[in-house]
Amino acid sequence: MNEPQIPEIVEQADLQALNSLAVAAQAEFFCSVTTTEQLIQALNFANERQLPVTALGGGSNLVLAGDISGLVIYLDLMGISHQQLTPEQVHVSFAAGENWHSAVEYCLQQGWYGLENLSLIPGNVGAAPIQNIGAYGVELSDVFVRLEAIDTRSGLAVTMDSQACQFGYRDSIFKRSDRNHYLITEVTLALSTVAEVNIEYPALASALEGTDPTPASVSDAVCRIRRSKLPDPAVTPNVGSFFKNPIVDKQHLEQLTKDYSELPFYNQQAGDVKIPAAWLIDQCGYLGARVGDVGVHEKHALVLVNFGGSGAEILQLAAEIQAAVKARFDIALEIEPRIYGSPR
Ligand SMILES: Cc1cc2nc3c(=O)[nH]c(=O)nc-3n(C[C@H](O)[C@H](O)[C@H](O)COP(=O)(O)OP(=O)(O)OC[C@H]3O[C@@H](n4cnc5c(N)ncnc54)[C@H](O)[C@@H]3O)c2cc1C
User: Fold this and answer.
1) pLDDT in tens, 232-268
2) I want to staple 115 with a disulfide (CB 3.0 to 4.6 A). Which of 70, 104, 236, 335 is the partner?
3) Which of 31, 34, 130, 245 to mutate to test ligand 1, by most ligand atoms within 8 A of the CB atom?
């Protein structure tokens, strides 16, 4: 019988090229794993030394406030399989290291629909459940069936369905009580062979107005809109939306609209409304602002950009923006990406 391959563990590994904010930081220990056996070996290494473990995918939704102590594991597991359940429904399983947008494109080519609106979201499939990725009126939870993961506490494989993941708006159990308890190895989604499209999101509806939309044309439109609005992290380092869109209740909305009649909002359940955080930040004068080597993107107030600064500087600017929005609107903006490490 073959011995399981042991992953190469590197000490003081440079993470700058592995996070889309291009922040300079080091991992105390780093390894890349291509199989679950290697992943378990890596966990054994960490457990023997009582090191904390951090999972890394495409690095497009984290802020490195400083060096990361313990073992950072890049999940490079690859593979796609499917099971045709009925003529109309297929379950597709993606290994964690598959690139998200390539997975969307692959499904479109196979005639498996449901992911079009989530085209061009950076990162890997394994990270998609962490914040229940969403865009243009669709969230991962709309198509999610189950995930496979390794429990970092026991080293055992577990399967979790949608209910166990407790998905919410840019949220899941993995951002709350089970932060860092699970390393996701595979995600299974339910897709349709019927070419129905969802173009309820206003920007998408207007981009496709006068056409007979297909899943492929929806995906193309989403890519076009995203490229026109969002900076490419390879050119202008960023993590996409830095803050979640806040949800406020009816009384708070009434109070706000007395002073700001033009305040945009979207109705939610139970009379609550979601307010675009970008609008609030723009009102506070931060669109295009630059503070030292970090700033706010000139076209999108929700996107903080890095011109060569540190994660700590990014977080300082974020705190300044949060304070300004709180003072003016009495709204507490919540940071969307996960924060790791402490300043040197
Ligand atoms: C330009 C831009 C646009 C974006 N647009 C959107 C958008 O429209 N909608 C949206 O929802 N997000 C968006 N994002 C955020 C980001 O792309 C997603 O959150 C994505 O899912 C992150 O994937 P990743 O592989 O880069 O994760 P990483 O940044 O590597 O990790 C994010 C978190 O997930 C954890 N993690 C990663 N992989 C695993 C795993 N296998 N098991 C357990 N934990 C894991 C990490 O520890 C970390 O806490 C955008 C980002 C950018 C830069």
Assistant:
1) 999 999 999 999 999 999 999 999 999 999 999 998 8
2) 104
3) 130
Query: Who contacts 195 (Cβ-Cβ below 8 Å, separation ≥6)?
Result: 111, 113, 214, 215
What class has domain 80-229? alpha beta
Fold of 10-75: 3.30.43
Whether 200 is a known active-site residue: answer no
| CATH 2.60.40.420 given to domain 238-340 | no
Mutation probe of ligand 1 site: the residue of 121, 187, 304 with most atoms within 8 A of C-beta:
121
pTM listed for this prediction: 0.95
What's the 104 CA to ligand 1 centre distance in angstroms?
15
Contacts of 148 (CB under 8 A, 6+ apart): 157, 158, 159, 184, 185, 186, 187
